Amino acid sequence: MSKLFAVIGNPIEHSRSPELHHAFAEKTGIDLNYVKRLAPLDGFTASVNEFFAHNGVGMNVTVPFKEQAFALCQQLTERAKIAKAVNTLWMENGILHGDNTDGQGLVDAIKALDWTLENTDILIIGAGGATRGVVYPLVKAGAKKIVIANRTRSRAEQLVADLQSAVPKAELSACSLDELDGQFDLVINATSASLTGDALILPETLTFHHAYEMAYGKPSSFIDQAKARQIPSSEGFGMLVGQAIEAFYIWNGVRPNLKDFL
To answer: In what order do the strands lie in the sheet with 182-189?
Structure first.
């Protein structure tokens, strides 16, 4: 009997997780069925419990349930604890486990582009959950300095305060979008600007060598500006594939090659 997996969210119809996991399964010879599950906004816990009660093996969690998934887990990985959000669930000996593979997905996507993270200075724009989930994996991969820039500076400062103890070897700092300046190896857009259609204006005094947009499939003023400066850039499809591969590996013990799916 094929192993049952699912992605849960609201909305969910846009999710590309089933096609990715079925592609991984085909490549690795694993027999699985991966489905989409729409959970009512007030019915996440019941949906998860029902899935695992009916022989579900693993579940990916997407918006808006990652924080609820974090609260539901009895056992959390280090990176999930730091992210305070969970996107990968599995049951082991009756205990619900949770991990956050988003940050590792980003790291693997950047490496697949052959961009280095060793000893880098990185600017992350945005101080929401997406940023919280990627700082620890970026530092583990070699980033030495990370600046978090946000429209509201106090929110970026709070995130730096929350994360500093998790990454003692790296230098974390905060600034407002108005204060954007300096030179960076990599700039990551972790805001929802491309999803909402808002323009994100990068000042001329900000110089950088690579640009990564976490969102994918939408026009991005961030990517447009990088291209105008002839700076190598990428949108977030690689991160999507990377986080899915990491979840697939947790559940099945096999790690597909990211470059095969880009």
So the answer is: 171-176, 145-150, 121-125, 182-189, 206-213, 233-234
